């Protein structure tokens, strides 16, 4: 009896364990948790049933199945691939595609693997776009390449429920010989630019030197001109002052002589004095710079007067005592 009861207890325990395992399996297959950023696609016997948003969801055991799809934007970086440009240059190019699932049903049921499909489409678009561009355009117009690739892929990916947000070219690697040629070209351009800058600097220096010499010559000429003008003005002023002085002196001299002549009383003047005055006037006329000499009408009378004056002086000298033997005074002639 004891053995039979023990066997019965063990059987109950086993049944309880099996029942618990079944319950856990049932709960595990029935309860599904969808994380934020993803959605759950419920399929019943392989047929699309519903789309579940993030949270806890209860499914029918052994009937429903849920596949989770990430609806966040994700980048897909492809490996480097060889493309040929329009001018027959082989390049190694890699690109990154930023895409996002917008229609979960299309992404799961319209294409087997939308990630692989996007990768293959990107390879095809790269070859097509770079085949329309030259090497220089491929290296300098990355924005144009990105836009053209997106145009090539947008229509196809929309059928798969995937949206292309942007495409970025990561790396473009030309062949070694092309890189060497580009380096030599860049170096030649740098030498050319340096030579041009040097020649422009020398040209500017020559222009500045010429302008400096020009300004110096102009200033020197202006200084000489001003000096000449000031010298001429000074000479002119001196001549004017000298002429004014001579004019004033002549006027004063004439006024003095006129006053002296006016002071002479012609009624009491001696004949000899009158003769002397006439001789002085004749002497003044003779010393003038005129090319013609005007002789007064009374010139013949002046000669006789002068001869009489000389004889009178001689006679007066004979009547005076000898200055050596006399009182030591110098004889004076009275006119």
Task: Give the structure's gist in a few sentences.
The chain has 335 residues and is of the alpha+beta class.
Structural class: alpha+beta
State the name of the first-level CATH class of the domain at 74-174. Answer: Alpha Beta
- In sequence order, what are the helices and strands, one letter per element? HEEEEEEEEHHHHEHHH
Strand content: 15-25%
Fraction in helix: 55-70%
- Main beta sheet, described? 4 strands, antiparallel
- Please name the CATH topology of the domain at 74-174: Tetrahydropterin Synthase, Chain A
Low-confidence stretches: 322-335
Overall residue-averaged pLDDT value: 77
What descriptors fit this protein?
Tetrahydropterin Synthase, Chain A, disordered C terminus, 8 helices, alpha+beta, 335 residues, four-stranded antiparallel sheet
What would you note in describing this structure?
By secondary structure, the protein is of the alpha+beta class. Among the domains are: 2-69, no CATH class; 74-174, Band 7 domain (Tetrahydropterin Synthase, Chain A, 2-Layer Sandwich), CATH 3.30.479; 270-286 and 295-317, no CATH class. The chain contains eight helices and nine strands. Strands 6, 7, 8 and 9 form a four-stranded antiparallel beta sheet that branches. The chain has a three-stranded antiparallel beta sheet with strand order 3-2-5, with no helix packed on it. Strands 1-4 form a two-stranded antiparallel ribbon. Helix 3 packs antiparallel against helix 5 (142-159) and helix 7 (271-286) crosses helix 8. The longest helix has 88 residues, at 176-263. The protein is rod-shaped, with a radius of gyration of 69 Å. It starts with a helix and ends in a 16-residue tail after the last helix. 9% of the residues are buried.
């Amino acid at each position: 009896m004891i053995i039979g009861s023990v066997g019965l207890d063990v059987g109950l325990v086993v049944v309880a364990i099996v029942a618990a395992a079944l319950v856990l399996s049932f709960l595990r297959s029935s309860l599904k948790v969808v994380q934020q950023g993803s959605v759950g696609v419920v399929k019943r016997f392989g047929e699309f049933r519903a789309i579940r948003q993030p949270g806890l969801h209860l499914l029918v055991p052994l009937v429903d199945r849920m596949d989770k799809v990430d609806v966040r934007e994700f980048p897909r970086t492809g490996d480097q691939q060889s493309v040929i440009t329009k001018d027959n240059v082989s390049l190694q190019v890699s690109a990154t595609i930023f895409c996002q699932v917008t229609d979960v049903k299309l992404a799961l049921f319209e294409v087997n693997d939308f990630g692989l499909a996007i990768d293959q489409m990107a390879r095809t678009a790269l070859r097509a776009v770079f085949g329309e561009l030259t090497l220089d355009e491929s290296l300098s117009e990355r924005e144009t390449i990105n836009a053209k690739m997106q145009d090539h892929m947008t229509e196809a990916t929309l059928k798969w429920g995937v949206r292309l947000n942007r495409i970025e070219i990561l790396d473009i690697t030309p062949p070694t010989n092309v890189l060497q040629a580009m380096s030599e070209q860049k170096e030649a351009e740098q030498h050319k630019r340096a030579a041009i800058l040097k020649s422009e600097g020398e040209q500017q220096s020559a222009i500045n030197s010429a302008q400096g010499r020009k300004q110096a010559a102009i200033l020197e000429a202006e200084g000489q001109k001003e000096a000449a003008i000031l010298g001429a003005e000074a000479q002119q002023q001196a001549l004017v002052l000298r002429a004014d002085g001579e004019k004033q002196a002549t006027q004063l001299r004439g006024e003095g002589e006129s006053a002296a002549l006016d002071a002479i009383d012609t009624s009491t003047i001696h004949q000899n004095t009158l003769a002397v005055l006439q001789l002085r006037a004749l002497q003044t006329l003779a010393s003038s710079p005129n090319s013609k000499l005007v002789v007064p009408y009374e010139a013949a009378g002046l000669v006789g007067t002068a001869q009489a004056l000389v004889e009178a002086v001689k006679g007066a000298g004979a009547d005076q005592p000898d200055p050596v033997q006399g009182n030591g005074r110098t004889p004076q002639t009275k006119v």
